[in-house]
Amino acid sequence: MKTYTFHVAGMHCKACVVLIESELDEIPEIAKVRVSLADFSVAVTGEFGDKAPEHIAQDLSVALTPHGYTLSVQKGRHVVSWSDFKTAVPIAGGFIALFIILQKVGIVNLVTTSEVGYGTAFIIGLIASVSTCMAVVGGLVLSMSANFAKEGESIRPQILFHVGRLVSFFILGGVIGTIGSVFQIGATGSLVLGVLVALVLLVLGLNLLDVLPWAKRLQPTMPHFIGKHIHGLKKINHTLTPVLVGIATFFLPCGFTQSMQLYALSTGSFVTGALSMFMFALGTLPVLALLSFSSLGIHKKAQSGIFFKSAGLVVIFFGLLNLLGTFVSAGIIQPFLNF
Predict the structure, then answer these.
(1) What is the pLDDT at residue 17?
(2) Which residues of the chain have pLDDT under 70?
(3) Which of 57, 92, 165, 308 could hold 71 in an S-S bridge, CB 3.0 to 4.6 Å?
(4) What is the C-alpha to C-alpha distance for residues 5 and 95, in angstroms, rounded to an integer?
(5) How far apart, in whole angstroms, are the C-alpha atoms of residue 58 and residue 4?
(6) DSSP 116
(7) Are 43 and 56 in contact, with CB atoms under 8 Å apart?
(8) How far is it, in rounded angstroms, from Cα 212 to Cα 217?
(9) Parallel, antiparallel or unpaired: strands 2-9 and 41-46
(10) H or E element: which one contains 42?
(11) Fold of 2-72
C-alpha cells in the first residue's frame, strides 16, 4: 500500500470534508482517507498498482465530480472572480431592499430588534439549501435515492425523508428552546448567543463570497465522526431509513443549521425554538425536494459564482442586522433603524 496526497478543488467548508471522505471510502482500492480543510488536500492510502499519481487523481475525481470536487497533483491557485460582484451586488441589493419594504409595510415580519423572525429563518433556509455547506445533505439525498431505486422504490422514501426532516427539526428545535429555558439564559447569555449567531452568519457569508480562503476554517461544525456515521446511514435499505436520515440531518455539519440552533437555544421557549427550526427546514425543502427527484446541482452551473456571491451578501446583511439588533436589545447602542 502507498499513500498519496492530492489537492482538492471545490472545497468550501467542513461539510465538504465529510462528503469527500464518505465518497472515497467506498472505493475498493482505498484503505484509508483523510481530508484536510486547512490546506484543501486529501491523503489516500491504498493499492493502486503501477498507476501514476496523475492517473490516480483522475480516477478518484470520477467519484467526486458529481459533487463539484476534483483532485489534482499540483496545487491549484485560488482565483477570486471579482467580476461576479458587478452582477451580485445589484441582485443582493434588490433582494435586501425587497425584504425591508415587505417588513415596513407589515406584510411579513422578517427582522425584529432582538429576534430572528420566522420569515428570516425561512429565507436563511432557502439560502442554506443551495449553499455548499448543505452539499452533504444533498449527497445523502441522492445516494439514498439511488439505493432505494435499486429496490424499485422511488417516491415513498423521499416523502418519508422530508417528513422526518421537518418533524424532527420542529421537535428538536423545541427541545433546544426548552433547554435554554431550563438554564435560564439571562441578559449576558442572550447577548453572547446573539453575537455567536451573528458571527456564524458572517463567516458563512464570507465563505459564500469565496474571497478569503482562510475563513473557511472558522466555520463551526459537529464532531467529525458524527457527520461521517450519519452519512453511512444511506447504505441501509430499511423501511425507516429515510426517516432516520431526515432526523440525522439535524446533526450534520452545516453552519446555517448550527446558527439557527444557537438562536433556538437563546429563545428559551419550546414553541419559538420549534417554529424557528421548522421554518428553517421548510426553507430548505424546495431545493432538497428537487434533489430527491433530479440531479439538480446549482454549484455546477455556469452562474454559480454570481449566485453564491449574491447569497453571501444577503447572509452578511442578516448577520450584521442580527448583531446590531443584539446590541440594541442589550442597551449597548441606541436604535437607529426602525425595524
Answers:
(1) 79
(2) 12-15, 76-79, 102-116, 130-154, 184-187, 190, 213-240, 253-254, 291-304, 335-339
(3) 57
(4) 42
(5) 13
(6) B
(7) no
(8) 10
(9) antiparallel
(10) strand 41-46
(11) Alpha-Beta Plaits (3.30.70)
Nine-digit cell string for 275: 417554529
264: cell is: 433556538
Contacts 24+ apart (CB under 8 A), 65-69: 66/295, 66/297, 67/10, 67/19, 67/20, 67/23, 67/135, 67/139, 67/297, 68/10, 68/132, 68/135, 68/297, 68/299, 68/300, 69/8, 69/9, 69/10, 69/11, 69/16, 69/20
**CA 288/CA 90 separation, integer angstroms:** 27
pLDDT tens-digit map of 86-135: 888 998 898 888 777 766 665 554 444 345 678 778 888 888 776 655 55
Q: Which three cell numbers stand for residue 305?
A: 459564482
Report the amino acid identity of residue 207.
N
Q: Where are the alpha helices (DSSP H) in the chain?
A: 14-25, 53-64, 85-104, 118-129, 135-150, 155-182, 187-209, 224-231, 241-248, 255-267, 270-293, 304-329
Cα(195)–Cα(90) distance, integer angstroms: 28
Give residue 122's identity as a one-letter amino acid code.
F
Looking at the chain, the whole-number percentage of residues with pLDDT higher than 90 is 11
Q: What is the residue extent of each domain of the chain?
A: 2-72, 82-329
Cell 482562510 appears where? 214
Task: Kindly give, in sequence order, each residue whose CB lies less than 8 Å from that of residue 316, ignoring residues fewer than 6 positions away.
Answer: 201, 202, 205, 206, 209
Q: pLDDT digits over 87-100, tens only?
A: 889 988 988 887 77
Model confidence pLDDT, tens digit, residues 171-213: 999 999 998 887 766 667 767 777 877 787 787 778 778 777 6
The pTM of the full predicted model, rounded to 2 decimals, is 0.58
Q: What's residue 36's pLDDT?
A: 85
Torsional class of 10: left (φ above 0), alpha (ψ -120 to 50), beta (otherwise): left
Strand order in the sheet with 2-9: 30-36, 41-46, 2-9, 70-72
